[in-house]
Amino acid sequence: MSITLETDRLILKPVGPADLDAHCNMMADPASAEFLTRDGKPQPYHADWRSYASLIGHWEIRGFGFFSMFEKNTGEWVGRTGPWMPAGWPELECGWAVAKPHWGKGYAPEAAIATIRWTFEQQPALPRIISLIDPKNQNSQAVAQKIGETRTDEIYMYEGTLPLNIWACLREEWLARFGA
Ligand SMILES: CC(C)(COP(=O)(O)OP(=O)(O)OC[C@H]1O[C@@H](n2cnc3c(N)ncnc32)[C@H](O)[C@@H]1OP(=O)(O)O)[C@@H](O)C(=O)NCCC(=O)NCCS
Question: Is the pTM of this model over 0.90?
């Protein structure tokens, strides 16, 4: 995929094979895994490998998906964000994850805003974008607030057992605030 998005400090490109190890390194960190894996713990490398392959495959099937985030000034891979809607998902979601050494820099909201803008542009009939967030995940709720999402009173039961809050932004309201 040759799509490239640019923010003040980041370059965003669709996840690809070159970023596999950086992504697996992030997922091997317990702080990253806490709200991203089913049991909240790092998975073995082969499981992270398969998960990452599904991020790449999502682009092939849907024509959209997670973007890798690279620092402009170093070229370093710092995380991933973007639209995600695998089979069975309740609605199109914007997700985010940043490698622990890069927490506290404001990269997640900066990148998420760019990918939400891109997603609304690509999908003119899409009424809203959601984020599924564990109520214990304070960092992620802070990101959702910064990017103009609000918590709805809807709950999604992930795999039938894990209740996640549905945060959402509505197309027209969001574009009025963050549109180009
Ligand atoms: C969720 C996650 C991406 C949040 O990362 P984060 O770095 O804490 O959040 P932000 O990118 O918003 O950065 C936060 C801080 O950067 C600071 N910062 C420094 N420079 C900044 C700049 N130039 N612009 C904006 N913020 C800046 C801000 O002060 C901000 O702190 P504040 O929230 O107290 O104001 C991260 O915790 C993570 O990857 N978690 C694991 C994966 C996960 O849970 N994903 C979500 C699943 S739903």
Answer: yes
